[in-house]
Amino acid sequence: MAKFPEAWTVADLAAFVGGSVIGDSTRKVSRPGTLQDASPDTVVFADNAEYLDKVVANGIGVALVPSGVVAEGISLVVVESPRAAFGKLLHFCVEPHPVAVGVHPSAQVSPTATISPEAAIGAFVVIGDATVIEAGAVVYPFSYVGPNCHLERDVVVYPHAVLMQSITLRTGAIIHPHAVLGADGFGYSWDGTKHAKVPQVGAVEVGELAEIGACTTVDRATAGTTRIGAGTKLDNLVQVGHNVQIGKHVLIAAQTGISGSAQIGDGVVMAGQCGVAHHVSITSRVTLGGRAAVISDITEPGVYLGYPTRPMDTEKRSMALYGRLPEIWKRLRQIEKSQDSEK
């Protein structure tokens, strides 16, 4: 892992993240870390006093903390958002995976493809007919970019990603390893004897600065376009069905499945293992708790839980009541027996 500049101190760190120091400002800082790999020259972030106690107990020397969180025996850097400041520091530890600008000799490129001389195409990449790859785009080894694709500036396609055909990646989009964009949507029609395949002839568009996680799949539209909005982030192992429309700056966690033609508004957050039924619409600024199942439209912003999803307060009351069902059932049986004995 790369390290900070060797001469850095807590004072330098505070200046970089825009924080103030409590404690020893001359302590050396060499790297970000966690509770598991603690050392006096390690910096971590602590959002609350309880976690900071664990940091101190593990012998970590420096912590990024919010205002009002204090401890003895440690250098503290007070910032508005410890998590955001820690993320800024992590940029020092990014190890590049360089791909030389130009087309690697082992890449297979269609003669009808257009590739900027400022793009980087790695070893054993396949580029299909009529595909356009703009300046600054990087396609890592063993990726497949099929026909009629368009990769705009500064797109990154990591190893073994598959772009089947008619895929548009807007500026700065990132596609992680083994993601598959543009596989056929799950379209079949019962003809009385078998499930007959419905041709899938549409496209996929991934917005500017969007990110598609490893082993995530985004199906091509039956007709038209499946869209992922600008700034949206899909975790690993997410399934997006054909013709789904996902808005801007959406967060979708792992193992979530979105059925065909569903519509997801801007700023939606979906926790792990959520499910969205086909043709369902979710308005903007909705948060879905883990394993929430959306089977009808959500028209009001807010936090929703459960199966089927309901507003958080309603669902929490139901969950509390569910835990009391054995007791309630016992009392109900006692009342019924008492009434029976009075007859």
Describe the structure.
The chain is α/β, with parallel strands linked by helices and 343 residues long. The protein folds into two domains: 10-93, Udp-n-acetylmuramoylalanyl-d-glutamate--2,6- Diaminopimelate Ligase, Chain: A, domain 1 (3-Layer(aba) Sandwich); 102-315, 3 Solenoid (UDP N-Acetylglucosamine Acyltransferase, domain 1). Helix content is 16%, strand content 27%. The chain has five helices and 38 strands. The protein has a twelve-stranded mixed beta sheet, with helices on one face. Strands 7-10-13-16-19-24-27-30-33-36 form a ten-stranded parallel beta sheet, with no helix packed on it. Strands 8-11-14-17-22-25-28-31-34 form a nine-stranded parallel beta sheet, with no helix packed on it. The protein is flat, with a radius of gyration of 26 Å.
